[in-house]
Design a protein that fits this description.
With 76 residues, the chain is α+β, with helices and mostly antiparallel strands. The protein is built from two helices and eight strands.
Length: 76
């Protein structure tokens, strides 16, 4: 995902990655990863990066970040 802000819209996250935020955490198919509470329809890209194993790379010159892809599904 290319981001203009480190605040990721929850609906956009699900649409673009398949990860849905539910009370039990971020879920994709039958896999759920615990997440801290979030408010306002957004979650921090740094949290997604840490919890889902998504790379988070900044392009400071253009004020953009790249997030993903997730690697959590392949972890033992």
């Amino acid at each position: 995902m290319i981001l203009e802000s480190l605040d990721v819209d929850v609906a956009e996250l699900e649409r673009r990655t398949g990860w849905a935020l539910k009370p039990q955490g971020a879920c994709k198919a039958e896999l759920c990863v615990p997440m801290p509470p979030h408010e306002g329809g957004t979650i921090g890209a740094n949290i997604l990066s840490e919890r889902l194993g998504m790379a988070l790379v900044e392009d400071a010159e253009h004020g953009l970040w790249a997030l993903g892809p997730d690697t959590v599904a392949g972890r033992a």
